[in-house]
Amino acid sequence: MKTLVRDGIWDNNVVFAQMLALCPTMAVTTSGANGLGMGLASTAVLVASNVLVALIRGVVSAQVRIPVFIVLIASLVTVVDMALNAWLHELYKVLGLFIALIVVNCAILGRAEAFASKNSVLASLVDGLAMGVGFTVALVVIGLIREGLGAGTLFAQASQLLGENFAFLETRLHERGGALLMILPPGAFAVMGFLLAGKRVLDTRLEARAKAKESSEAQPAPAQAG
Amino acid sequence: MSRLAYRAERTFAAPHAHGDGSVGQTMFLVQLALTPATLFGFWLYGWPAFFLWTTTLVSALVFEFFCLRLMGRKAPGRALADGSALLSGWLLAMTLPPWSPWWVGCLGAFIAIVVGKQVFGGLGQNVFNPAMVARVALLISFPLQLTAWVTPLPLVGAGAPGFVDGLYIFLGQTPLPDAMTSASLLGFAKTELARGAELSQAFAAVGAPQVSWLGVRAGSLGESSALLIALGGAFLLGVGIIRWHAPVGVLAGTLIPALIAHALAPERFLDAHTHLFSGALLLGAFFIATDYVTTPATAAGRLAFGLGVGLVTWVIRSLGGYPEGVAFAVLLMNGITPLIDRCTRPRILGRTRGGEAIAAVGKEA
Questions:
Q1: With contacts defined as CB-CB under 8 Å, which chain A residues touch B107?
Q2: Residue B7 lies in a domain
Q3: Which helix (H) or strand (E) element contains residue B200?
Q4: A&B contacts, CB < 8 Å
Q5: Does A193 contact B at CB distance below 8 Å?
Q6: How many helices and strands in chain B, by DSSP H and E?
Q7: Most buried residue among B34, B144, B198, B349 by CB atoms closer than 10 A?
Q8: Residue A35 above 80 pLDDT?
Q9: Residue B35 included in any domain
């Protein structure tokens, strides 16, 4: 269970390790609030689809599984789409176009195929949640960096998404505005690239440290021996 | 390592010959060719221009050093001495408005060196010209600062900012007075056209920027003095650092459509003379489109590359939204350079174009 969570959030992160779902990642992360909204909507779909797929995995034959998964995911996305339109209409106006695109978010079909169709309902639920949180975190981080550099704000319009209680999140870093490029598509690729490189460096360092620890535990330090 | 061993290491099977030059030598000669125009720019735009130039170059070197360290390259100091980062920074500084605040130069150097060059693997690996990547990124990000051209105030003349005032402008503490800012010629033409004015009337009006060989007018370091840039280009051609194909291609690509369009509709299109002496056309033709790394490898390919740059430049200047398009044109053509290289692949020695072996001549006798 711990591995599942760790996998979803860090080791096997949808964006930073599997490199899936890059289309919504690039398109909606122009601000932290947009990233958060997209992440949460995707998480909801991901959890529901994982659970449903795990439930029916014994019934569906291998030959028709992909169409069945797609119909399932498409129905779920339609539900989320309508729910957002009904209860979070302001956010829907911003994200509307991209919500429908969750259907083709390869992360969701990917988890259905790679995990939920082979595992129990509970494991699939946890997996969907962990992957969804990992995806959300990635989207929010990219969104915040782009927003901070490009517009000079953080979490602008977050209260529309989360309710008036969260208005304190909205920060203005400076008044001058920012580098417009970061809001445009090239900014998404640049931020994504630097984050990927950063994660790799971190992973390599951690691995090296773990290895050093292992070898030092296996052989007692020569100072003690001598 | 002795010189002989160095040579031996580079000697491959015939028909290759070692040119016996080094990266550092080439970069130095290009910098030498840029020096006259740069010095003239300092004289024309005063201390702020000098501060900006220095900042851009120093930051380029610092970022290059930092990247080489990060990549675990041995002896980063020696790699730094090849002057390639210095040249990228220099070329970038030539294209910036001379009175930009310090962070424009610093950020530009970061984009050029880190995003434009080292991310791709360093010297010789980059797909796009680093200086042009930085220039375009800055222009899109900060349109206001990147179009604030100043009227020339020669260093010795009255009203020019002194050392301390120049420092304040450079640090971004003093907003540029309106009287000192001025449209560049291409920008002026674009605005007038957008207002629906005819070009001939617009240029006859008082205060319109004039074309000038010598370059006492608003612009960046690299565009003001067409004469000195062209001289630098001629020097590079003379010492064999660049070949004629790319520059000729660029100039022909812009001037031929300009001639035709101006002859057909003079009230709508600028004449070839204006195109030639304004903006970064000459700098682009001699210093940017001749970059070894990001342009095609063959003579025919370079000519095609140059024509493409020139044509796209003219299209952007005449029909596009931006007044100047050399940087965009160079980046676009950089993108299709691999394609050009594929289409202009040279014949293999001893084989026909189709790859068939050629029968030895004279064997029958």
A1: 179
A2: no
A3: helix B199-204
A4: 16
A5: yes
A6: 18, 0
A7: B34
A8: yes
A9: yes
In this complex, do B142 and A179 lie within 8 Å of one another by their Cβ atoms? yes
Distance from CA of B142 to the nearest CA of A (A): 6
What ipTM score was computed for the predicted complex, to two decimals? 0.75
pLDDT category of residue A25 using cuts at 50, 70 and 90? confident
Domain range enclosing B202: 20-343
Q: Which tokens sit at A196?
A: 């990927």
Say whether A190 and B115 touch across the interface (CB within 8 A).
yes
A186 in contact with chain B, both atoms CB, cutoff 8 A: yes
Ranges of each domain in chain A: 2-213
Q: Do A180 and B141 touch (CB under 8 A)?
A: yes
How many domains does chain B fold into? 1
pLDDT per position as a tens digit, B68-97? 888 888 877 777 888 889 999 999 999 998
The pTM of the full predicted model, rounded to 2 decimals, is 0.81
Report yes or no on B351 lying in a domain.
Answer: no
Q: Indicate which CATH number applies to the domain containing B233.
A: 1.10.3430
Q: Residue B150 forms beta bridges with which residues? A: B181
CA angle B13, B17, B21 (to 5 degrees): 135
State how far the Cα of B201 lies from the Cα of B195, in Å rounded to an integer: 12
Would you call B140 and A182 a contact, using CB atoms and an 8 Å cutoff? no
Q: What is the pLDDT of residue B312?
A: 94
Chain B residues near any Cβ of chain A (below 8 Å): 107, 115, 119, 137, 140-143
Closest-CA distance, A190 to chain B, in angstroms, reads: 8
Whats the size of chain A, residue-wise?
Answer: 226
Phi, psi (rounded to 5 degrees) for A154: -130, 130
Are the beta carbons of A181 and B137 separated by less than 8 Å?
yes
B6 pLDDT band, cuts 50/70/90, is very low
- Compute φ and ψ for B150, nearest 5 degrees: -110, 150
Give the single-character DSSP code of A31.
Answer: S
Residue B301 lies in a domain: yes
Cα–Cα distance list, A154 to A135, A160, A191, B202 (Å): 19, 14, 16, 45
Q: In a mutagenesis test of the B interface, which of A180, A189, A202 is the best target, namely the one with the most B β-carbons within 10 Å?
A: A180
